[in-house]
Amino acid sequence: MARITIADIARRAGVSTGAVSYALNDRPGVSDETRARILGVAAELGWVPSQAARALSGARVETVGLVLARAPETLGFESFYMQFIAGIEQVLAERSYGLLLQVVPDIEAEVQAHRRWHAARRVDGVIVVDPRKDDPRLAALAGRDALPAVVVGDPEFAGDLPAVFTDDAAALRECVRYLAGLGHRKIGRVSGTEGFGHTTIRDLAFEGEVAREGVVGRVARADFTPDSGAAATRCLLEADDPVTAVIYDNDVMAFAGLGVAHELGLRVPEDVSLVAWDDSPLCQAAFPQLTALSHDVTSYGAHVARRLFERMAGAEARAYRDSTPTLTVRGSTGPPATAR
Amino acid sequence: MARITIADIARRAGVSTGAVSYALNDRPGVSDETRARILGVAAELGWVPSQAARALSGARVETVGLVLARAPETLGFESFYMQFIAGIEQVLAERSYGLLLQVVPDIEAEVQAHRRWHAARRVDGVIVVDPRKDDPRLAALAGRDALPAVVVGDPEFAGDLPAVFTDDAAALRECVRYLAGLGHRKIGRVSGTEGFGHTTIRDLAFEGEVAREGVVGRVARADFTPDSGAAATRCLLEADDPVTAVIYDNDVMAFAGLGVAHELGLRVPEDVSLVAWDDSPLCQAAFPQLTALSHDVTSYGAHVARRLFERMAGAEARAYRDSTPTLTVRGSTGPPATAR
């Protein structure tokens, strides 16, 4: 499959490469007749404008960038990112855009990647995930000449950039009320990575809602990986005064927690109720099936991509609320045995 | 963050943009003194050569492409692709390359994407996954002027392209021998998508090995999704003469199968033994933990990326065997109750 060049068209049409360039760029400098002949030859040869040439002329490079600042090996644990990317791809595919994906160790490296991509015109815009307090990425993406960007997270952590977010606080409050309503008096929470904006927001919502319900709330820190989720679950369940319900910040930690409960000889949900965040097909494959805060992550990714296209077209920075995760009750939650 | 252009450098250095171009491209046309001044100014401004300009000059665009021909929503089910991509990214990151990822509905659309990328110089090479018999992608990637490519799969399905593969037949044979050795006389297999090269290879290995061991082998077709895995498991376990062990073509189908076994009131492994393919952290989170054909998918992705760089540098097409998946025995397999 050879690439068709301007030289190929020039040769076939019997004109100079300059004439081909004028014709293809719809600029004066060739007669209408010659232009028509050149366009005919170009069409016949299946010519596609070079991305590089269009970038030089200031046009789009038809690529959107996503940097993930994580240890590469942690990516495979969560279905979240692949679902999210699948959603982005749905929208990009409609426009024949590609997604340029790079995994880097930390957000400082992410800032460098954005800078490099922008300088070298490799992307038309970027998606920023897991925003945190005083996020250095936002400063680097501020200003009139900056790369267009959309933040995936609460507007509180998005600076002056557009943000697409879910109301995690509302979702977590609903979950705490549900568990308290079942009779749970000691509720645990296995959190995601400390420092992430959404972890802070969920922490505050949890703290506020357990106080409002007059129940005990305990938080064990983890980092979204199964191992950390298992360790945090042990902490909560092997305490002298263990919790009878646990809410997790993602699905794989809830899975790992289910394994720990089985290992400790605890029945689910009689001895301990478990709730996952980000429902996934695996939540339904578990036994018992996992109650989850369901969110359509693929639609979320698609929503973010649409907002980025709007931003690249010059839209003002705004905050867009995506649908709030809702509680899907399955077999892993019920009244605590002690209250029965 | 503004992009530094040749015009900015020219202005600051007090020279023409042509002079800047000569200097930056290391071509004659400016004095050594002027060249030094221009390079100094460029360094001071933090200039990075434009990707577009380098592409036009025939240099690399420092991007590798991967098209996934699947329904986007199925991507989130399997940790395989995210782990595989994480491995690719490890190698790309060392070279500051990006991965251009596009999800398309079928391999005909994949051929179009390759063609478009090549014509528009958006990638330096591509990775082709899930090769099948008479794969139209191979023809489109054949020839001297074609986009450099590496096939992830058995050389039998890779045409004249380099291939990186695992010896799935050996892995499956080991697994059948292990189960037969435990006393299983009726072994099931829940397969991946029909038509994929590796499905065919595993089918043949399974058929051959059950015959050699003198046991009954039954295949139920699925497509890597949890729902299909659950349905196939029901087929195998609800038959009049059910199997006592099931080997799955990935991890999420094995998970779904575990859920079905629980649902049917079957004990694992006493009533039915289960084996997953592509070990993942989730296999260890399950209860009982899943015996699996373990393969380091992240390393596999890294291996593929390294071979693609070699190919882009002009290496001959060869077949490279990656490590063979090995059986990791955990709690989901044991002797069948009837043989105890």
Automatic annotation (TrEMBL), chains A, B:
Region (Disordered): 320-340
Chain segments annotated as transmembrane: none
A Pfam family it matches: Peripla_BP_3
Keyword field: DNA-binding, Transcription, Transcription regulation
Domain called HTH lacI-type: residue spans: 4-58
PROSITE patterns: HTH_LACI_1, HTH_LACI_2
InterPro entries membership: HTH_LacI, LacI/GalR-like_sensor, Lambda_DNA-bd_dom_sf, Peripla_BP_I
Protein name: LacI family transcriptional regulator
Originating species: Isoptericola peretonis
